Amino acid sequence: MPEPSRAPSPEGQHYFSGRPQVASAPATVPLALPDLTLTLTTDRGVFSGTRVDAGTKFLLLEAPAPPEGSVDLLDLGCGYGPIAVTLARRAPKARVWAVDVNDRALSLCTANAAEAGVGDRVRAVHPDEVPDEGGEALLVVQKHLGSDSLARWLDGEGWPTRRLASRAGYRLLAAAAAGPDPAAPPEVGAT
User: Fold this and answer.
1) How many whole angstroms separate alpha carbon 83 and alpha carbon 138?
2) Which residues contact 185 (CB under 8 A, 6 or more apart)?
3) Is the dihedral of CA 120, 121, 122, 124 positive or negative?
4) I need a labelling partner for 72 at 20 to 30 A (CA). Which of 22, 118, 137, 158 fits?
5) pLDDT tens-digit series, residues 132-181
6) Which phi and psi angles does 117 have, rounded to 5°?
7) CA angle at 45 for the pair 42 and 50, rounded to the nearest 5°
8) Which listed CATH number (3.90.220.20, 3.40.50.620, 1.10.510.10, 3.40.50.150) goes with 1-130?
């Protein structure tokens, strides 16, 4: 995910507040990608409410195509939904879990998914509403914020990580859950 600023808004609110107290001021932002163009509704009190964040755009341009078929995909920190909606449009049989702590962001994501014709497959939910999932995580991290050391750390913690792309100071990393250690002895006596 992109590394946003943690500075509070002028009203003392963060985009990661559950219920932003900043006054609503809906607006629209364009998202132009080679395979689709969207106009997304956004608002104050959500992540990157005035434009599609550069890290998000990098992810949408550089990430591999989502898997085909009836799969579950996850957009963690969905904001108003540019990633969730794009995933749902690119993977027509997938269910997309759009997760955020910000109620305003979840409402916007739901509305943007409906407007894009994928509202039946995008589930905008709080973190505790997502079923357990495994798989691979795609992360966008700015180089100057430690992307390379993060990749090494993930590797060391058992999450094999590789760099998929790099551009304009951003890194696109793929981290997978580690499989069983082939050198480990087989488990004996488990019933």
Assistant:
1) 12
2) none
3) positive
4) 158
5) 888 899 999 999 999 999 999 999 999 999 999 999 999 999 999 876 54
6) 80, 15
7) 45
8) 3.40.50.150
| pTM, entire model | 0.84
Distance CA 148, CA 154 (A): 10
Ranges of the chain with pLDDT below 50:
1-12, 181-191
Place of tokens 């760099």: 163
Q: What is the pLDDT of residue 46?
A: 92
Question: Which string of DSSP letters, residue by residue, matches 74-125?
Answer: EEET-TTSHHHHHHHHH-TT-EEEEE-S-HHHHHHHHHHHHHTT-TTTEEEE
